[in-house]
Inverse folding.
């Protein structure tokens, strides 16, 4: 039987293997294994690519969120509004600092945080004092940032973009044609994950925080490296959140290919959109204010998606749900006191959606096979 994985990293690495091997060899020859020259080279390359003023490489996307929150002065007992429908780390990083995740629902069309739900969260009387909003650029497209930034300005809140899934996407502010901003550079800070499965993935864990303010960037540099400015002189309580030089070397090579890979994902998405036309299934909506780099290509039915997923898996197609249980219903967040019935759009999305393979190396034949399998189930 044909087998189509959700991602094929071997196929991605094969054509660039010699370049990567050479970059890794250089690190081994130089032995500067942590925050070496290649890390600052990568930070500079990301600044050039995104237009951010500052880029601080770190250990992973989870730590990137914690670092961003700490650098912006958010800590124990502060409330941070974030969506319930996202990967655990969005809220886990908030809670790990002793801060309080304040959940909001999602927009049912884009799956990103709902602006009206953020407004509701801010109106709550007996919750924690809210200090920040953390929209997530889920699946590869930006959240609706302008109204969120407006709310933040009006309420003196910080905004951190959880940009783990959308590195390379562009936010297109209304009425400012040609003035797109790269995701992660729109708010006070943007966190990035270079987890191997991301569109730009390392060969292990790696992450980054983008910032537009020097004081915030300085704080990030201190916090990621034991609070050290000068070795053995610790100015603040920091952690070991540094990036390995080997990861930076790999990422430096791969960054050059990111736009081409993202373009290929967009072409694949367009091919699926066309092939699935007329079927009782919803293809992803791209909001006018953002490009979509299809970290995931997510379909939606008007009933539970479990049957279709099972059908696809039986055909050798690795279809999945991201994410099957919204965060407000996770056992680890029980202490926050949310209940079934809260955030209905998050709950509905967790039942009715499914992601199918969209990675750049997917062949037309693979996509035709997947489209055929979906048709077989729906017709
Ligand atoms: C939305 C979101 N936030 C945060 C993270 C955490 O990133 P990492 O796995 O690099 O710690 C991820 C990664 O899966 C993610 O998808």
């Amino acid at each position: 039987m044909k087998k189509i994985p959700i991602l094929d990293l071997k196929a991605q690495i094969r054509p660039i293997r010699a370049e990567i091997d050479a970059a890794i060899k250089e690190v081994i020859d130089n032995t500067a294994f942590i925050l070496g020259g290649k890390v600052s080279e990568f930070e500079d390359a990301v600044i050039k690519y995104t237009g951010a003023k500052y880029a601080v490489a770190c250990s992973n996307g989870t730590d990137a969120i914690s670092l961003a929150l700490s650098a912006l002065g958010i800590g124990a007992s502060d409330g941070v509004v974030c969506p319930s429908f996202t990967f655990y780390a969005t809220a886990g990083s908030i809670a790990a600092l002793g801060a309080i995740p304040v959940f909001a629902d999602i927009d049912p069309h884009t799956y990103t945080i709902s602006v009206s739900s953020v407004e509701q969260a801010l109106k709550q009387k007996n919750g924690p004092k809210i200090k920040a909003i953390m929209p997530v650029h889920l699946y590869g497209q930006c959240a609706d940032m302008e109204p969120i930034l407006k709310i933040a300005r009006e309420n003196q809140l910080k905004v951190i973009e959880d940009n783990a899934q959308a590195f390379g996407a562009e936010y297109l502010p209304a009425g400012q044609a040609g003035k797109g901003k790269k995701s992660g550079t729109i708010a006070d800070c943007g966190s990035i994950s270079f987890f191997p499965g991301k569109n730009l993935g390392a060969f292990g864990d790696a992450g980054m925080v983008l910032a537009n303010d020097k004081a915030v960037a300085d704080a990030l540099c201190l916090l990621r490296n034991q609070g050290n400015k000068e070795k053995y002189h610790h100015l603040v309580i920091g952690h070991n959140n540094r990036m390995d030089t080997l990861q930076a070397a790999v990422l430096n090579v791969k960054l050059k290919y990111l736009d081409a890979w993202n373009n290929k994902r967009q072409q694949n998405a367009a091919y699926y959109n066309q092939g699935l036309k007329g079927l009782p299934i919803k293809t992803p909506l791209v909001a006018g204010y953002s490009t979509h780099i299809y970290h995931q290509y997510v379909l939606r039915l008007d009933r539970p998606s479990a049957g279709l997923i099972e059908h696809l898996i039986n055909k050798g197609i690795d279809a999945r749900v991201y994410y099957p249980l919204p965060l407000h219903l996770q056992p680890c967040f029980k202490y926050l006191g949310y209940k079934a019935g809260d955030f209905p759009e998050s709950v509905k999305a967790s039942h009715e959606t499914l992601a199918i393979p969209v990675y750049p190396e997917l062949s037309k034949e693979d996509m035709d096979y997947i489209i055929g399998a979906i048709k077989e189930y729906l017709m």
Q: What stands out?
A: The pocket of pyridoxal-5'-phosphate is lined by residues 60-62, 86-87, 89-90, 136, 162, 164-165, 193, 195, 205, 207 (CB under 6 Å). The chain has two domains: 9-104+112-255, 258-378. The chain has 13 helices and 13 strands. The mean pLDDT is 97.
